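Protein modeling request. Please complete all fields; requests missing the sequence field cannot be processed.
Requester role: graduate student
Desired output: 3D structure, token encoding
Chains: 1
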Amino acid sequence: MLEDVFVLRDHDAIGPLFEPDAVLHTTESPGPARGREQIRRFVQDLWGHQTTYLADPRTVLQAQATALIISGRSISVAHRCGSGTWRYAVVLLVPGGIKVGG
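Delivered output (102 residues):
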């Protein structure tokens, strides 16, 4: 989902991927983007800095309509809406990679 938007740089597809009150943050930014409009602008700014995103999920834990997705470069929480569509609620992008342990 998010990877496709990054690869295609599809401005119109950013907002619908997120819950209305979602949060997106990257370890290289001063603070998170909150809500679809801020997230759209934030992602467009990332594109301007040539930031890429590869999904590469390593672990997915699902409890009914909520999923925790851990990859090599991100941690996300997604929610399944009544229509069956998954939307991100929280996304943390870690461009340098997630390091586990000491």
